[in-house]
Amino acid sequence: MANFNRTRKIVKIFTLPDWLLIIFFCFLAVLFFFKVDYKESKANVFYKNKLWQTIDLTENREITVDNGIVLQIKSNKLRVKESTCPHKYCVKQGWSNTIPIICVPNKLAIYFTEDENMLITR
Questions:
Q1: Does domain 37-121 match CATH 2.60.120.260?
Q2: Is the pTM of this model over 0.90?
Q3: Coil, strand or helix: which one is 25?
């Protein structure tokens, strides 16, 4: 019975506007936690120390940079599929959409960027 009386006292402390404000902030917290973002992933491909192309990662495809250098894009990730370098470290690195891919012998560097847009503004 003592716990029930304590709960009633707490309920009586807050007025209707207080409860509405508490519910409003709880609603905002839930919205903030579950907010929907749309991230446009892009890759900047530098070849021979110059920006060769900016690639959108949302479209699955293969791109030939130069003779023997092939990039593959699939599921918002990119990899170097084929390369003419001797050790092929860039090919062995595999799929990435965050960590840069570097191929020193071919002077190829791929850096990833994300443009965050709220889904509501699209």
A1: no
A2: no
A3: helix
